[in-house]
């Protein structure tokens, strides 16, 4: 049994107007092609009849792996294609079932149909199901089968498959525009960035270098994780690094319990200036409500006040376990979880409630805005990271 084609499904793209839908499908196809090339696949055919994309290739396994990196794909299945002929469909279904049904496991047949035919989807399920049951003496279980034969009839061609792989879902990469992501390389910020990628955003990863107040391991981790995450983009991830050592020095000596709030506001301000330079449309963070003291609702409001740009927090309602699960699924967790030491300027007690006037007064005393202008002009390093 040899699969000869991969059936690719998209979701919300189908809900768009016909003009927008065509644009998004073409964008999705171009990203599929780029992902295939990254896996060394150069020979294939790609077509997109209404509601589906079909990938014809001899490199099925490599192509399945390539599709797992493309946002906008809901699911995909390797198929065997046959003419829409009942006898041929039955014969192929029996051949597929031989490996799975010889041990007398339960099964189901799931059929859907597009076009005009002299049979219904239910007719097809009953006919194929009866032949499989008699051939292998197996039990039909429509609620919880051990094995399912899926049959998709599309006019004169039928696609038969048994496995459906979960895709990233969402929208094609980049169709919503750019965002600047505060990116440490830990567990949270890469996952938050990935969720914006699947919503059609193009992230610019902004890494804040702490200088002598940081650990070089963190810098290396951020670069490695960004490279891994870049596989989920067609052209790599823009990575920007700025030196916050002077700002950390000011905050350490003057902020006290307000250290975390003022530090994070400074990062927001820097991200806003980078956004203006790169024409990005917002700031992305890995914050989750109440996860740490600086992420109380009160403090998040104070953080938001530091910028006129929208702040996107995809992990707002996530707990740590949920975020870790996504990190593992994306292949980022092993690198992201590496210990890079604690923040050396973290105060013994972090304020969970902040007064905006008091915060602004401290920022003015430390000339935070002036420092940010200077470091962006003098220390910004840019590169594009690829796997």
Mind explaining what this structure looks like?
With 387 residues, the chain is an alpha/beta fold. 41% of the residues lie in helices and 20% in strands. It has helices spanning 18-38, 60-67, 86-101, 121-136, 188-197, 216-229, 245-254, 259-278, 297-304, 320-329, 333-336, 356-365, 368-379; strands at 5-10, 45-47, 53-56, 73-83, 107-114, 147-154, 157-161, 165-166, 177-182, 201-209, 237-243, 283-284, 311-312, 381-385. The strands form 2 sheets. Strands 1, 2, 3, 4, 5, 6, 7 and 8 form an 8-stranded mixed β-sheet that branches. Strands 13-12-9-10-11-14 form a 6-stranded mixed β-sheet. The radius of gyration is 26 Å and the shape is elongated.
Q: Could you describe the largest sheet, including whether it forms a barrel?
A: 8 strands, mixed
Write down the domain tally: 2
Individual helix count: 13
What is the averaged pLDDT score?
94
Assign the structural class, choosing from mainly alpha, mainly beta, alpha/beta, alpha+beta, or little secondary structure. Answer: alpha/beta
Q: Write down the CATH class of the largest domain.
A: Alpha Beta
Binned, the helix content reads 40-55%
How many beta-strand runs?
Answer: 14
Query: So what's the overall shape?
Result: elongated
Return residue spans where pLDDT drops below 50 for at least 5 consecutive residues: none
Strand content: 15-25%
User: Which radius of gyration do the C-alpha atoms yield?
Assistant: 26 Å
Q: Under CATH, the topology of the largest domain is which?
A: Rossmann fold
Distance between the termini: 34 Å
CATH superfamily of the largest domain: HUPs
The H-and-E topology, N to C, reads as EHEEHEHEHEEEEHEHEHHEHEHHHHE
CATH architecture of the largest domain: 3-Layer(aba) Sandwich
């Amino acid at each position: 049994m040899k699969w000869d084609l991969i059936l690719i499904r998209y979701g919300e793209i189908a809900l768009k107007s016909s003009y927008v839908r065509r644009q998004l499908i073409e964008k999705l196809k171009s990203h599929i092609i780029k992902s295939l090339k990254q896996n060394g696949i150069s020979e294939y055919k790609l077509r997109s009849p209404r509601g589906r994309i079909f990938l014809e290739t001899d490199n099925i396994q490599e192509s399945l792996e390539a599709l797992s990196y493309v946002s906008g794909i809901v699911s995909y299945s390797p198929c065997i294609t046959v003419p829409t002929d009942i006898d041929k469909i039955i014969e192929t279904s029996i051949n597929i079932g031989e490996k799975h049904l010889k041990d007398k496991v339960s099964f189901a047949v799931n059929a859907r149909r597009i076009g005009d035919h002299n049979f219904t989807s239910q007719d097809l399920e009953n006919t194929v199901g009866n032949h499989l049951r008699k051939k292998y003496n197996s039990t039909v279980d429509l609620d919880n089968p051990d094995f399912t034969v899926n049959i998709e009839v599309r006019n004169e061609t039928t696609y038969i498959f048994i496995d459906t792989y979960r895709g990233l879902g969402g929208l094609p990469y980049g169709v919503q525009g750019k965002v600047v992501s505060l990116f440490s390389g830990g567990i949270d910020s890469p996952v938050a960035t990935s969720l914006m990628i699947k919503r059609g955003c193009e992230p610019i990863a902004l890494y804040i270098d702490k200088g002598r107040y940081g650990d070089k391991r963190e810098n290396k981790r951020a670069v490695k994780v960004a490279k891994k995450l870049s596989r989920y983009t067609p052209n790599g991830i823009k990575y920007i690094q700025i030196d916050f050592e002077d700002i950390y020095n000011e905050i350490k000596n003057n902020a006290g319990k307000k250290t975390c709030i003022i530090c994070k506001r400074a990062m927001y301000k820097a991200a806003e200036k980078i956004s203006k330079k790169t024409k990005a449309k917002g700031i992305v963070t890995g914050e989750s409500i109440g996860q740490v003291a600086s992420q109380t609702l009160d403090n998040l409001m104070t953080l938001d006040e530091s910028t006129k740009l929208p702040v996107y927090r995809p992990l707002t309602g996530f707990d740590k376990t949920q975020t870790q699960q996504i990190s593992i699924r994306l292949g980022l967790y092993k690198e992201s979880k590496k210990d890079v030491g604690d923040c050396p300027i973290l105060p013994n007690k972090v304020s969970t409630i902040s007064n905006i006037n008091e915060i602004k007064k401290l920022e003015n005393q430390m000339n935070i805005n002036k420092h940010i202008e200077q470091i962006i002009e003098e220390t910004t390093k840019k590169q594009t990271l690829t796997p």
